[in-house]
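Appendix B. Extra example for self-study. Work through it before the problem class; the solution is given directly after the inputs so you can check yourself.
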Amino acid sequence: MLKKKENNNAPAFTSSGLPIDRSLKVEKTQAAKRAEINRNLVAYSFIAPNFIGFAVFTLVPIVFAFALAFLNWNGNTEMTWAGLENFKYIFTNEMFLASLKNTFIYTIGTVPLTLVVSLFLSIILNQKIKGRNFFRTVSFFPYVGSLVAITAVWNMLFNPSMGPINEILMRLGVENPPRWIADNDWAMFTIILFSVWKYMGYYMVIYLAGLQGINSELYEAASIDGVNTWQKFWYVTLPQLKNTTFFILIMLTIQCFKVYDIVYMLAGAGSGALSEATTVLVYEIYNSAFRYWRLGVASAEALVLFAIVLVVTIVQFRLEKD
Amino acid sequence: MKKALSALLIVLLAMTSVFANGGAESTSSDGTTTLTWAVWDYATTPYYDALINAYEAKNPNVQVEVIDLGSADYQTALQIQLSGGGSEFDVVAVKDIPGYNNLVKAGLLADLTPLAEADGLDTSVYGGIVEQVSVDGKFYELPFRSDFWVVFYNKDLFDAAGVPYPDNDMTFEEYDALARQMTSGSGSSKVYGAHYHTWRSAIQLFGILDGKHKITDGGDYSYLKPYYEMALAQQADGIVQDYATLKTSNIHYSGVFYNESVAMENMGSWFIATLIAQTAAGANDAENWGIVKYPHAEGIEPGTTLGTITALAIPASTKQQAAAWDFVKFVCGEEGAEVLAGTGNFPALTNDAINDIIASTPGFPQDEQSKEALNVAQLYLEMPLHDKSAEIEVVLNEFHDQIMTGNIGVDEGLAEMGARVDEVLAN
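Solution. Structure tokens for the complete assembly:
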């Protein structure tokens, strides 16, 4: 109301000399603003359920974990300032360093192997072969099967003394077959083998989608140019799958750095303790947090994991751009 | 945008305050007090209900409600619930010593010492256990169950082999010889003379029974060497099942006894109630079983064995401490002990009368030896109370696993185990 009055006292004119009714314009802009606010509120209210959940269960804990890494806290008593003590502790802790090393070995072993195997599978199962759907289902099955159940089966298959795998190896003349998960030198290899087998089906499906998105004219043009199958794969298929491969690479790398369940179920069964040969980052984080209740140390370890995943992802993005 | 963010923060804060008002007194208008008790495996453990029914019959104005936190991560779940003082629990069962130590360190349990003193409670009836769980002269839990390790054996297998049963005074040498004597057959008819479950207690803790060492001390663990060597030799000779096989196949200790593939098995007394129940249900082929006292080193009194306790504690956050303490006293006291014994379980408070109740449980072996085996001379906790017990436990488990799978030699493994425990202690 007040604005209206002021505006009336100072009339303005358009270029054609007609006075502008400013009050009308102000009312219009206010109405528009109100409408905008309303629109925004409606939009926020749609986002809210998801965002509140995200904020309470993800955002706040993440920020909290950053702070905790520099504190001493057992979950109940008073927090005390630790500075860099937690980081100093973990980088002199033998088990944490072993877990760091093992996680890298696991990732470096699992990622390329899974990429190659799932690409190979998808190319084969993209052909018009008999029983294609059956084989697609079979390859996808490890991914959907319950981890507890399939690790139990694997542990039986790879049982060092009475497992069928070693039985077969011995029949084939291998005198001292590896003791797989029970042997420090073979344990990580066994875990990688399992992971590749488990993941291959899922990434095969993603590759299949990528393969089916390739324009068939490219292959026709290549055929007219007289290229052979290998060249088709190398110069058409592979470059066309670049985006898919990049997506899988990122997802798989992150997944591998976060590994815990597979290792725990395969190597920790029975005693629930992972040795220096099999321990991984997330297991150490779990131990620090929920076995020893040293939440500061656990947060520092989690920050290290976060930093690694961040750096690896940034490097991969850079490489992709180049 | 800023306003929206601050509004959001206010909403979040308001929500947390809504969720943070736990620990209320739950006395209803008709004067009934409701106690909430945190336990694990409620459905498969018969004594919870038996104890509650007995208590409620005696105290008609009290109701005890049970919340089952599951067995696998019980201590973790419990500690998370109690942290921040927002839990609804008035009484909690404590599963193990490392878990108890964590709760005490975090200040989550009420000090029971003044309550016990005010009531003139005699803690000596627990055979020194209360002293073993005291921190700076204060105790925060009272044991209600106390299990101890014995040797279970299959009488039919001994009869078939024409070998006399093991007895209540058996040295490790005699035990080893007997295990070797009882091993026979191959393939599906193979009988192993003895059996070690994959827990470290099953072998490692033979070494602490002489009372000279504490497993949490670190340093020189070479005193465990003879026992690891005995077990590894038995493993190599096919007297016991291979550790790596047991571990990777996740074989439960009960199955090998039920299907009569082991003649002797060292295990905790909790297995007695299970065996009785499974035999009655027809799931156990080794119907004719007995127990004898744990083997002992030369010069050590028979009946010296390992033990593990299950205890009750009162959260510091409860508003019903008096009512909770009354329940704790009942369960851990003589009345609770009789109820527990009636279900075939071992109460922490023990005497001849309680042992008689257990021995007269239908299904308990009828021979005198088995009854006599219930008398414990000296009990050492599987994991003594120590400020770093959770961390030490992980190291002990790891090296037990490494030694038994042959990834590391006995000498080297024990030396490394000592060094690693020292590292934990120094931190």
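Self-check: Chain B has two domains: 23-147+308-359, 149-307+379-426. If your reasoning did not lead you there, revisit section 3.
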